[in-house]
Amino acid sequence: MIRFHLDENVEEAVAGGLRQRGIDVTTAKEVGLVASSDEEQLAFAHAAHRVLVTHDADLLRLHAHQFPHAGVAYCRAGTRTIGEMVRALVLIHDCLTIDEMHGHVEWM
């Protein structure tokens, strides 16, 4: 089952929306990763077998350079409402497995 980790660029309300639907999610603030590097965020999510949710295009570059990760759900900042992000993440959660997400970027 997919679990998510939201980096500090993603609104906290997204985590709340996922939790209301029974989905396991952590945030950078909760795990002490505020102001951490992209590599640290990705490494944490990878070690915890969590898909990293981000608005940060730099993480796409890390993916392109084959930095190991358990999956990235990317949404360009300002293109989706909180509700749209929650619905997209619920769809990822319901339709994909953690194995399918491993090393994969899902665009929202």
Largest sheet strand order: 2-1-3-4-5
Secondary-structure arrangement, i.e. CATH architecture:
3-Layer(aba) Sandwich
Largest sheet: 5 strands, parallel
Separation of the first and last Cα atoms: 19 Å
Mean pLDDT: 95
Strand content: 5-15%
Structurally, how many domains make up the residues? 1
Order of helices and strands: EHEHEHEHHE
Helix content: 40-55%
- Unreliable runs: none
Round the Cα radius of gyration to an integer and report it.
12 Å
Cα shape? globular
So what's the CATH class? Alpha Beta
Structural class by secondary-structure content: alpha/beta
Number of helices: 5
Q: Which topology does CATH recognise?
A: Rossmann fold
**Number of β-strand runs:** 5
Explain what this protein looks like in three dimensions:
- The protein has 108 residues and is an alpha/beta fold.
- It has one domain: Rossmann fold, CATH 3.40.50.
- The protein has five helices and five strands, in the order E-H-E-H-E-H-E-H-H-E.
- The protein has helices at residues 12-20, 38-47, 58-64, 82-95, 98-101; strands at 4-6, 25-27, 51-54, 72-74, 105-107.
- Strands 2-1-3-4-5 form a five-stranded parallel β-sheet, sandwiched between helices.
Label this structure with key terms.
single chain, 108 residues, alpha/beta, Rossmann fold, five-stranded parallel sheet, 5 helices, 5 strands, 15% strand, globular
The gist of it:
The protein is an alpha/beta fold and 108 residues long.
